Amino acid sequence: MEKGISGQEAKYRPTIGVLGSGAIGGFYGMMLARAGFAVHFLLRGDYETVARNGLHLRSAQYGDVDLNTAHIYRRADQMPKCDWILVSTKTTGNLALAPKIAECAAPGARILVLQNGLDVEDQIRPALPDSMHVVGGVCYICAQRVAPGVIEHQALGAVHLGYHSGPAATTAEKQAILAEGASLFRTAGVEAEVVTDLSTERWRKLLSNVPFNGLSVLLDSELKQLASDQDSSRLALDMMRELMACGEKLGYRLPSEMPQRALTQAASIPDYRPSMYQDYINHRPMELDAIYAAPLAAAAEAGCSMPKVEALYQALRFIDARNNHDGGEHGGSEPEQQDEPKAALVN
């Protein structure tokens, strides 16, 4: 913990690490740094540019944040030991991620997984020491990396935190850790909520992740167009209703108005193409396992089918295999860099 003097007495503030300093990690990391926390960013592909130019956040909601002397690192073992580690890398790189977390984690560290998809924490947990707390973070934000080290924030920013696993044995201990995490974001001016059921919250996020990410690729369209067109919006609503029905069988009880609410919100976000589209055009593997395969498998186990969701998944698998067969001309970024946009209810 870093010691800082504020007012009349010494105050201890956690040291924070960010693994995946693209759109999501860059936004939350810079907001936390602006609030006075010691934030350390792991970079690979963007390291040289950021070392020269710094990290920059452009937000109509929060104003500009410029970190010209940011703490940046090429390797996790060069970072100080961090009390909170924000993991915002792509889920496609999770198998290789645990050793990097261990290299920069303080004893009893809180690992906050800011990723899309169902049960993504399960991919990381087995390779971590039992002494570490794993916390899930579901982000509702519209932000994108527009250049190396430059994040453009378009709307919202809330993060919902739920305890996944670790040495906290009682509800009170788990709630204390979640309250600590939420307090970090609130101190930074970012909306944060504590949720009691992380799996339900992740399923809720799938309602917009599933249709809008995939349809943006399949139909080569931005979010507002998808949500405003009669045919594509109807298809999106049908998939959301499939998710609602299967979620009910799995015990995820969500308000019946959620699909229409998600569609209305999507229609209000102009000039935005969600993260999966950015992966597609940059010839990076799309996050199909976490966003499609995992919920489809969970639904099948519960005896529930989602035919339109499955059809979209099958089409995306074909597109993904063809798109990455030759590596593509754009190259793309490495797993540590979550360089694609993330959207409110859509990322």
Write the layout of secondary structure elements.
Layout (H helix, E strand, L loop, with lengths): L1 E5 L2 E5 L1 E5 L3 H12 L3 E5 L4 H7 L1 E5 L5 E3 L3 E3 L8 E6 L10 H7 E9 L7 H4 L8 E15 L2 E16 L5 H17 L4 E3 L3 H21 L4 H6 L1 H20 L8 H10 L7 H7 L6 H14 L5 H18 L23
Describe the structure.
By secondary structure, this protein is α/β, with parallel strands linked by helices. Helices cover 41% and strands 23% of the residues. It is built from 12 helices and 12 strands. The strands form 2 sheets. Strands 3, 4, 5, 6, 7, 8, 9, 10, 11 and 12 form a 10-stranded mixed β-sheet that branches. Strands 1-2 form a two-stranded antiparallel sheet. The chain is globular and about 55 Å long. It starts with a strand and ends in a 23-residue tail after the last helix. The model is unreliable at 2-10 and 327-344 (pLDDT under 50).
